[in-house]
């Protein structure tokens, strides 16, 4: 069953998850002031209670391509950063991790201090730890 909704000139299709084997997401380009990746469990650190944020002015694609302007580690218990947007991002990331039930790698972007989430996936470098969350 497919429901068609017309909103602001865009047609969106909604399917039951049991009916779809493959989904294609088409999203508008977002000119980002800042963007990057947040890991809800630091893949290069020893403390599972730390989040790692890697960000770049101009957008998440810069970080994906290896250009990191800011790298910051935040504790999940405090979210204390000099960048207010990182505090907000950490709160969102923690919420997403709780929804999934395991540590995630989140690609994000920000425009005018508003945060957009582009992609969420398990942290692949934590394969042993992620397996523990699935059991």
Can you walk through the features of this model?
With 135 residues, the protein is α+β, with helices and mostly antiparallel strands. 22% of the residues lie in helices and 36% in strands. The protein contains 3 helices and 7 strands. The strands form 2 sheets. The chain has a 5-stranded antiparallel β-sheet. β6 and β7 (114-122) form a beta hairpin. The longest helix has 17 residues, at 84-100. The radius of gyration is 17 Å and the shape is globular. It starts with a strand and ends with a helix. Mean pLDDT is 79; it is low at 1-11.
Strand content: 35-45%
Number of strands: 7
Write down the overall mean pLDDT. 79
Radius of gyration: 17 Å
| Low-pLDDT segments | 1-11
Helix % is 10-25%
What's the main sheet like? 5 strands, antiparallel
Short note summarizing the structure:
The chain has 135 residues and is an alpha+beta fold. It is 22% helix and 36% strand. 24% of the residues are buried.
